């Protein structure tokens, strides 16, 4: 049986020694969970979204080791295999693993977003990254205009960054 507590602990163990990475995925997970609930996602899609939010950056450490960089394009290359390994070991359903692997492999690609789970994952990651990266008001405004599509994501953005809207 799938357990989010086991998944979260698996990611904490995966990212051990990197508290910023752990705190990042926990924040993205919670924003994704809240946006998905507010957007009334179907239960299975919500489950997939929440899973993807927990593991979305699982490829960073492998990317740094292989390429010397955790840049988004490298995360997208290395993340799917890492996610599959963790999720398979925890007994996640194959269809969920397949979709989550796709999302992990595309979460820094902002074109051709195909599905509410993908859209919400990107929005949740932006909500957190804009603060963590100390983005300028112009960068925030640009992100809002380019990225945010869901009403709930827009609402969170406006509450977090009112100076940018």
Structure write-up:
The protein has 165 residues and is mostly helical. Helices cover 72% and strands 0% of the residues. The protein is built from 9 helices and no strands. Helix 5 packs antiparallel against helix 6 (94-104) and helix 7 (116-132) runs parallel beside helix 9 (151-160). The longest helix is centred in the N-terminal third of the chain and has 20 residues, at 19-38. The chain is globular, with a radius of gyration of 15 Å. The protein starts with a helix and ends in a 5-residue tail after the last helix.
Radius of gyration: 15 Å
The stretches of 5 or more residues where confidence is low (pLDDT under 50) are none
- The oligomeric status of these chains comes to single chain
Helix content: over 70%
Count of beta strands: 0
Coarse structural class:
mainly alpha
Written as H for each helix and E for each strand, in order along the chain, the element string is HHHHHHHHH
Strand content: under 5%
């Amino acid at each position: 049986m799938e357990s989010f507590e086991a998944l979260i602990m698996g990611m904490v163990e995966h990212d051990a020694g990197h508290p910023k990475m752990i705190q990042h995925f926990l924040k993205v997970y919670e924003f994704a969970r809240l946006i998905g609930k507010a957007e009334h996602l179907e239960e299975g899609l919500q489950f997939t979204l929440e899973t993807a939010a927990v593991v979305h950056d699982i490829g960073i450490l492998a990317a740094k080791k292989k390429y010397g960089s955790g840049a988004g394009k490298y995360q997208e290359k290395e993340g799917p295999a890492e996610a599959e390994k963790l999720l398979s070991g925890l007994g996640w359903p194959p269809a969920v693993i397949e979709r989550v692997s796709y999302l992990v492999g595309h979460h820094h690609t902002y074109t051709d977003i195909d599905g509410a789970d993908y859209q919400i994952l990107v929005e949740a990651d932006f909500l957190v990254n804009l603060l963590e990266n100390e983005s300028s008001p112009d960068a925030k405004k640009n992100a809002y205009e380019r990225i945010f599509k869901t009403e709930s994501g827009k609402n969170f953005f406006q509450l977090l960054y009112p100076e940018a809207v």
